[in-house]
């Protein structure tokens, strides 16, 4: 760890020194459109034959160091490229670009390289800088929501949380379901530590033709993140900052005090007991959601510095994020620093380095406070008259505010990523690149549980301090050789071979003690009682070695072929299954470039592509195939006890990769000079040998009577559709986009035909079952058909023992006259059948407006809080109109304190449409900013999660479940997604900000 930090400190020093290394003659200019003479912001100006270049600002202006005779290559998406030679007298250039019928010349990242979008045979979706920075977000993955077909983003409202990302469905049960992230060559688990303002683009590799180059970890898709680097030219300083607040966007309306008393008393009477509540018990009419939530402050500040000379470029940035959660006491802070430097040693040799450092602080508060606020009686005051916390002994629910205030849970993490690279153009056709990346991450958690008494049901008699330190370090060394050659006028070849080595080490140390003083200055373990000490530690080591190659062939810009093969070796598997090969092949036909398409004006682009490939998923814990021993069994030998050992867990010595085979067929098109563009994709993904925990008889001696093995197949089959319209008329521009994905998730094989049950509510009820022919984690519950409204109905219909008039009527689905577990049926799942996004933008002169929306259709949510009700807990206001002898027309069941069976009565629609971002901006006039010696100023206001159209009665239909990698608890994670118990509500956010370019 120390060596890694010293290395990164040296890298940072190297980078900073380049700030002063500017040289060369300055050439300035302006790039405009030939259509309307308007400036083209973001156009790329590169000196041909070098890696030096820059981009135009908001007014289309640029400045860079160039010599007489240098050729400037000027490009802009949607425009024909142009080359301009720098003359001896040239100081101010005016460059005009003409519209290009094809917008497919855009360059995208493809893994160990780049390619023109029009040359791709795989499915790749791209998010550019403007799509990210125009939507202020904490994590850049949030900016993808609703913008890319086939990519589903589900975000929590908790500050600092990581959104769940699913690319073309969920294809695993226990191994990690998140995509692989690669940031400037650094493989990492997520990008929460990356400041969104530092990102240039995010390229999402979706099909096997695109992802196979990453082999063993690409089954869930790959997200390539490219960060900003320096451009030669004058020093550019940019500040972007915003401030605003978050508020709860939705509160569940609960019964008031009188309704609560009436319901609770009725439940007691119906159970043959005496009512216990009277009007005198109404000491308050508390809205518990208001008691624990707040309007939360959020602000973010970023500043960057970039520039360079012919030989050296640099980029430096710093950011600070402050985000208080809507739950009182909750909070997230992030401090980020980033630096990069590129140095052209000679015409053929280039080196560079980058460094990213992020520190995150989380003040954690329990999600369960939202559940307590849902259940706690409104007759209980937040505080008693003497200032103590209010309580009641007539239920077992905590005072939610006390629950928050007595929770001391702080997490601090430090994450450092560094990259060194060298690139050598051996010949004009052959390039070698070596990329060495390191990552170090530390995670420290401190929990203190003080002594307190709220009531007999909410107290803690002994203080406890728990400390946890997690550390991880990784290095990745990529070496690639790329050959690029054009033969004649029609044949183009790009071939790559490479080798990658990786080492990843983790360690954990934790401990706790009781009777630690209640003073943060003394929260150390040595001040606790030594006899109560507990401690634990662990460590893990992973090694990988990979060889790979890829060939791209292009014939006459009409016929394209891509072939990829990768051999991976991983220490996570037994020696018999440690290595595997992942191949792929893709082909494309540029129909628009055929001779028979010449002369027509309808299609400006038309490409048909198809691909097949295999990728893997090795996300299992290290050494999952090795037996572990326990020394808790002594054995008698010659009358004396000798230490004995026993096997703790049964292991599968043939544990192997999860392998996903994918077929993809796509059509990309552009019409009316690419004002209308889009694509349609069909995909079929089959994951074989998915990991599950398979039950075994207790006689085998396994601790939990189950073992990890490959015993499931999962298929995701679907269609993606995207359509975009871009129009420009004088000073007026607008764009509209829509994307729609249909995904069918289905279990093909599982556990020898035996379903896996999960989704526990904590009250003895199980809600989900993963079975062949059904989606992952399908709801498997009793079907209801109204309620019993008369005694005659009850007597004439099969019912459970003890049923009464006013109870739910369960359907006897097997027709045997008995209501039991065999009557449960499948009632949908949280896996959405459809998800979609809408985007729109308008700009007129200095004003711009953008809107994005996202949603799901066809999925279900189980209202766990509603179903989990125990005695004398509160109810939703919507069910206060319950059945009674005087209200026989109601469809709401009678009051009851009995544990409710898991049934479709608690299943609600998960479909929703959310307007997740609306931004309005204004660029101050150039004459004004010039007088202030500034290049540009933009002010903006933003509203996030402004409106949500939903049928679900809970806080939010977005429930970002997570896959608990190889967790032996199969009742959690993916198998139990869609059960709303402790969801953190999605907040509505209002921001105002400014971007200043100096």
TrEMBL record:
Residues making up the signal peptide according to the UniProt record: 1-21
Gene Ontology, cellular component aspect: cell outer membrane
Gene3D superfamilies linked to this entry: Carboxypeptidase-like, regulatory domain, TonB-dependent receptor, beta-barrel domain, TonB-dependent receptor, plug domain
Pfam families from the UniProt entry: CarbopepD_reg_2, Plug
UniProt key word NAD: no
Keywords annotated in UniProt: Cell outer membrane, Membrane, Signal, Transmembrane, Transmembrane beta strand, Transport
Subcellular location: Cell outer membrane
Ion transport is among the record's keywords: no
InterPro entries referenced in this protein's UniProt entry, alphabetically: Beta-barrel_TonB_sf, CarboxyPept-like_regulatory, Plug_dom, Plug_dom_sf, TonB-dep_OMP_SusC/RagA, TonB-dep_OMP_SusC/RagA_CS, TonB-dep_rcpt-like
Location of the TonB-dependent receptor plug domain: 117-222
Membrane-topology annotation of the record: Multi-pass membrane protein
Entry-linked SUPFAM superfamilies: Carboxypeptidase regulatory domain-like, Porins
Family: Belongs to the TonB-dependent receptor family.
Protein name: SusC/RagA family TonB-linked outer membrane protein
